[in-house]
Amino acid sequence: MRLLTNTRLQGLFLVLATALGVSIGFSGSETAVSIFGEFVLPLFFVGVGMELRSEFESGYFVVRSNITAPLLAAVFGVVAPALIYIAVVNDGSAGWAVPTATDLPFGLAALTLAALKVRSRIRPRFLAVATFDDVIGLVILAVVFSSKLQPFFAFAGLAALATYWVIQRFASKLWFVALPLACLAIYSTALSGIQTSLVGVLIGLAYANSSHRHRLEVLNGWLVVPVFAFLVGASVQPALSGGLNALILFAILARPAGKIIGISLGGALGDLLQKGRTDAKSWLLVGVLGGIGFTVSLLIANLAYQDSSVDRNSAIIGTILASAISIVLFYVFVKFKALRAHPGEKSL
Question: Which stretches are transmembrane (predicted)?
């Protein structure tokens, strides 16, 4: 119960941080977003890497046959909203990547709205899909949004990362050596032009002390992600007078539909290939949760539309509204399902 309460409070705190940023707004916030995204937000991706390692060592992916359906659901769930964006906007930008990312912490917060029986059935699938979704998002960030490569800094970052991996593998107690190496790897990678999010995940994958994972989740949930959300919100407000791009706003708002279609089809197909049967209702709910996008989507929006504040703000506002729509849809779906199952009882 304490975990559910903390998850809900973190989700509420994230919403409040974003709203506060939008209401305040200040000049120079776009620069602050870029710096924070390059040098501090990698902590969030370190957590993603640790989560991925945990899933393969003791979680849902221990049974390797569990990989097929979530992987296909994640792939379809990325492709469908991207195709909708391209069909609607077709501006040649990398904005198609904005509606592809699913937010794991926010999704888990929304999941607490459901009854325990529904949560226990949906949570492992959503965790698995969101984990693969994060990996795909990292590939997109690394391939699409890395700038011109600076070989010296790239080599320095790679050397620091390799040394860090060796220490974690053979001398994990030397944290006082590993920590500066991890920071050096992130700093050098940022200067090299490569997206630091990928390095963050690799650091998390290599990290040997799983007992620190909860502490990092708390740090990310209560500080790193809310501060990033505040800065993003603050960067939107000063430029709102320039208006919004209706096509981009609509395309991003369509992400819940794209995620529902993609994840439902991909998950059902994976189940049919693996088991010969599927639980379509569960995949539908996972698809609804998949429409919640925040941290990675906001990061991509800032990278994809650096040269146009109007387009950038449209993508950010569309992402926030689409996430709100997905949360409401999820609540309506689980409430309706519970009322049908127990007409005379309160479900939530």
Answer: 71-88, 94-114, 126-145, 151-167, 174-207, 227-254, 283-303, 315-334
